[in-house]
Amino acid sequence: MGRAPCCDKNAVKKGPWSPEEDAVLKSYIEKHGTGNNWISLPHRIGIKRCGKSCRLRWLNYLRPNLKHGGFTDEEDYIICSLYITIGSRWSIIASQLPGRTDNDIKNYWNTRLKKKLLSKQGKAFHQQLKVKFESQKITSTGQNQILMFHDENTKSPLNQTLYNEVVDPSITYFCMEDQVMIQNPNMETFSWEQNQVWFGIDDAASSSYHHHSSPSLNSMSSGSSSIGTNSSLQMSHSTINNTDHHDQEMLFMTGLENLQVELFDEIANTNTQEIGLRGTETLSNNCLDHDISYFIDYPLFSNE
DNA sequence: AACCGACTCAACCGCCTGCCT
DNA sequence: TAGGCAGGCGGTTGAGTCGGT
């Protein structure tokens, strides 16, 4: 038995909103609010629209102080950095960019930002985003953590600024040895130390994480398929709770390899650029260090 | 001027979550 | 505790627009 529809689809209007509908909805919400019930709202104001449609129209278009288009370089940087860090969690990314909606950011990423990263301009931009990927088993505190990205641009204070800017005012900081923990209710627990982001792994975070895309760079091509959104990094999360060190490592590597395969397939299917591997793998201090520039660098660089 | 493919983005769809009873 | 429901979210679609031929 399927889920009951939220409204009678035959009785509601679909498609673009008219100025009259906009005016009615905007006027009502500004005067009375939504009444905490979007489903009944269209009946109250007398328009033949689905409640969800009203909500979307208000949030994405009618609500005050919205910005459309004209993304700045700083916003680009924040979007890219957060995308790399937390994946396609557009609502969280939008929450860090006042006046921007998740839909806008999603569209911007899918239609422009990915291509920008592929361009020459993106090459310079990418220098700021150059990342490494490391897995760390058990920290000195005994907390399971995974170090997801390591920015190599150590000379610039930009990242410090970024992470100070993007977290909610409600976040709390506390020092733990030489690192600063950041707790953001919207995100899994993560910590910041210079040029590194640590995600705490616990059952809640892990299970929550599985409902979202992995924090990998998504497809850099303009095709409709996506790569690397599910396999490897999710696997690293799902296995980090296990106590068997070797198994974790094997599963993690399997996932990483799956991601590479997906990426190279994507590249092979969409363009003729040279495919090359650049990367290193070292094992030291109980920390498996993968320089993933070979699957991050490649699609960001154009051979032109 | 007409055609066509690429691109943009508003809107929709359907799944998941959390709240309420 | 279970089921129903509304809200929230990310993925996808498709109409409109643009630019090249």
UniProtKB/TrEMBL annotation:
- For region Disordered, the annotated ranges are 210-240
- Give GO MF terms, alphabetically: DNA binding
Which SUPFAM superfamilies does its entry note?
Homeodomain-like
Q: List, as start-end ranges, the regions of compositional bias called Low complexity.
A: 214-233
Segments forming domain Myb-like: 9-62, 63-113
Location(s), subcellular: Nucleus
Q: What's a GO cellular component annotated to this UniProt protein?
A: nucleus
Coiled-coil parts of chain: none
Q: Which PROSITE patterns does the protein's record reference?
A: HTH_MYB, MYB_LIKE
The HTH myb-type domain extends over: 9-66, 67-117
The UniProt keywords, alphabetically, are: Activator, DNA-binding, Nucleus, Repeat, Transcription, Transcription regulation
Name of this protein: Uncharacterized protein
The organism encoding this protein is Thlaspi arvense
The record lists the lineage as:
Eukaryota, Viridiplantae, Streptophyta, Embryophyta, Tracheophyta
